[in-house]
Specification:
The protein has about 300 residues and is of the alpha/beta class. The protein has 13 helices and eight strands. It is globular, with a radius of gyration of 20 Å.
Length: about 300
């Protein structure tokens, strides 16, 4: 199918690549000329303006515009597309948006005769190879329309429609909260192995052994093995760990429901402390892991 894709960052360009490789037509827009050129070189078509992109989608039974942009820009972008797209079109928000804002935006776009589908997208920069995990919210009809795209992007059995608009981002928010807490647990354990009383332990080898038959084997621990094999002492990593907001949203949602999430709270507190200068091998490992799966910088 033909789809417009806005945002060719770390994941947006990879999503474009997977769609093109699976035979879809993709019209792209991004402020970075180099990213647009890269997409065009792979077979995408560039749009100079929003109006140009809408024109290029003419003839589609249901025009679809997929946003893969930072959460702070989503509001304005949805408002702009709502003024341009014809009634019946679908806007997909595939980024990490606050589900509470997604609910408000869904109601707003409906007044323009459009639908909003939210897709919580997990897989980071690694999704290009094996596919993404995708948590979808939206009406049955809208999700059915974008299903060919979801099938192309996700791993086998790696996506599902969970409910109305907002549900996808709600599930992805909690996914990221679990991710924060799990990363913190690994970071604490490997820090104790590094700085504890038993000396000269090959941490990369520990991670590799744990990946074969251990109860704590995981994608994250597999990345630990890769990171520590390449850089055992995490040389050049400051230990500053950024926090993008999703964990805070999860804690707010949990508080609203009266549900305690102490592990996540500790993980958030550790990241906040690292930003004030409290760094150690554990926070260095957190930063290195964020770089490995998300392409985030290892230093501030």
């Amino acid at each position: 199918m033909k789809i417009g894709l806005i945002g060719l960052g770390k994941m947006g360009l990879q999503i474009t690549t997977r769609l093109l490789n699976d035979g879809h037509e993709v019209v792209v827009m991004d402020l970075a000329a180099a990213a647009v050129e890269s997409a065009v070189a792979q077979g995408a078509t560039a749009a100079a303006t929003r109006e140009d992109l809408v024109k290029q989608l003419e003839g589609s039974e249901t025009p679809v515009v997929w946003l893969m942009i930072p959460s702070g820009f989503v509001e304005a972008e949805i408002e702009a597309w709502s003024r341009l797209l014809p009634a019946g079109s679908i806007i997909v928000d595939g980024g990490n948006s606050d589900f509470r804002q997604t609910l408000k935006r869904a109601a707003a776009v409906q007044t323009s005769g459009l639908e909003l589908v939210d897709v919580g997208t997990s897989g980071g920069i690694l999704g290009i190879k094996d596919g993404f995990s995708m948590m979808v919210g939206g009406s049955d009809a809208a999700v059915a329309t974008v299903t060919p795209v979801l099938v192309s992007l996700a791993q086998i059995d790696g996506w599902a429609h969970f409910g109305p608009t907002g549900t996808g981002h709600y599930i992805k928010m909690i996914h990221n909260g679990i991710e924060y807490a799990a990363m913190e647990a690994y970071a604490e354990g490997y820090r104790l192995l590094k700085d504890g009383s038993a000396k000269d332990i090959d941490l990369a080898r520990v991670a590799e052994v744990w990946q074969h038959g251990s109860i704590i084997a995981s994608g994250l621990n597999g990345l630990v093995a890769e990171v520590l094999s390449a850089n055992p002492d995490l040389t050049g990593v400051s230990g500053y760990v950024a926090e993008n907001g999703e964990a805070g949203w999860t804690l707010e949602a949990a508080a609203t429901e009266g549900i305690a999430m102490p592990a996540l709270q500790v993980a958030v507190d550790v990241r906040a402390a690292s930003q004030e200068g409290t760094v150690n091998f554990g926070t260095k490992l957190l930063a290195a892991l964020r770089n490995a799966f998300g392409g985030h910088p290892v230093n501030k």
